Amino acid sequence: MDISKVSSRKPIRAIKFLFDTKAPICVYRSYIKTFFNRKNILAGAPDISNFELDRSIGHFSNDWFKPNIPYWHQFLSKFGLYDREIKTLEIGSWEGMSTLYVLSTFPRAKHISVDTWAGADEHQGDDVLNSIENHFDGNTNKYKDRLTKFKGTSFNFFNSTIGVENFDLIYIDGSHHTDDVIIDAVKGFEQLKIGGLMIFDDYFWVYYKNAIDNPAGAVNAFLTLKSGCYEVLAVYGQLILRKLSDGRRLS
């Protein structure tokens, strides 16, 4: 299994990757802005003591999520998500690290986690697949009254009655193949409130030989399709955007 990431801290390689995956110009601008503002973002890291306590007694085989928290905090705080009741959706939950962060940090959040718990292409054959769902259940049990678990594909979720929602925050970290990411992006955007935030994980992640078969290929195609309907807020290892309109002009 050959998985790598194009380092967002190496501008020349990152910009080449943006070119290879057909990123729109707004992504280049946001990447450069985020790159030069990185120290300020990291210096403004929030208090995550509740999350750290829950994490310390959970069962996690890795921690891919925690480095993203300062970036999330910058915009979750700016747009007031801490201070009100919110609905959040996560496509791809694994052992529940990001789920735990949302539920421990936002006491008024109602959260939906969608996963098959069968792993994606890059996980096939890994022993950890035998335990990830049990770990998710145990790690998030404390917050089960505000958590809805949907076991199945994101495609099935978005076509189910439970998927008819208006979300304040959507986190996309499911299957990393471009065919699946584009579905998650388009269908998720339909159910994102105007003013809501959408976060794509693993923007600079590389597994498939053809550059545009990786998540960035789908994300960039989606951004081109929905041009004018969003603003890109940050580009680092992830991409964060805010929905401005749904683009459905009827006259």
Description:
This protein is an alpha/beta fold and 251 residues long. It has one domain: Vaccinia Virus protein VP39 (Rossmann fold, 3-Layer(aba) Sandwich), CATH 3.40.50.150. The protein contains 9 helices and 9 strands. It has helices at residues 11-20, 25-43, 49-56, 69-78, 97-105, 132-140, 154-158, 178-190, 215-225; strands at residues 4-5, 86-91, 109-115, 147-151, 167-172, 192-200, 205-206, 230-235, 239-243. The strands form 2 sheets. Strands 4-3-2-5-6-9-8 form a 7-stranded mixed beta sheet, sandwiched between helices. Strands 1-7 form a two-stranded antiparallel sheet. Helix 3 packs across helix 5 and helix 8 (178-190) packs parallel to helix 9. The chain is globular. The mean pLDDT is 90.
